[in-house]
Amino acid sequence: MLVTLEGLDGSGKTTVWERLRSDDTVPDDAVFTREPTDTWYGDAVQRSIDDDDADSLAELFLYTADHAAHLSNTVRPALGEERLVVSDRYSDSRYAYQGATLEASETFDDPLSYVREVHAPWTRPPDRTVYLDLDPETAARRSGATNKFETADYLSTVRNNYERLIDADPERFVRVDATADPDTVYERVRAAILD
User: Fold this and answer.
1) Domain 2-194 belongs to what architecture?
2) Whole-model pTM?
3) Mean pLDDT of the 174-193 span
């Protein structure tokens, strides 16, 4: 089973992911992974994130390459062994974030749909996605607005994109209020995964 953790920067995904890794109720053979990855593909993505002038379309293809390698080298092999895979960010992040980035270019009628089409051959849909829901202003404050993807205006578009994804596939998504105290958030995420 492939479970993904999604949400705006500052929503607590990585904190929850790290706690799950040390939770003894999670299967011992579970695979914990993330995007961008720790490979040279992920390094290229990180360099692009740090470059305020990076071309948004080129950036999309860097993310897609990282995702394709992640799927091939980590996700599919683990699923083939019938292991639980928990990923901190996955394809929905691409759709929501790169869809928002391309929206500024005014080249595409529906940037989110374009990103999904580009990604389609190189992905495998998650079985369950836990969406940590947080308003853009709180997300920007929590994340520190340290890069171009962490401003409240940008995150507002990202959040709208996540809402579109949830509306299109409501059975897959489990919404968790990320404004609750950290222990409550963790328990709700853990229950959504293990149940």
Assistant:
1) 3-Layer(aba) Sandwich (3.40)
2) 0.93
3) 96
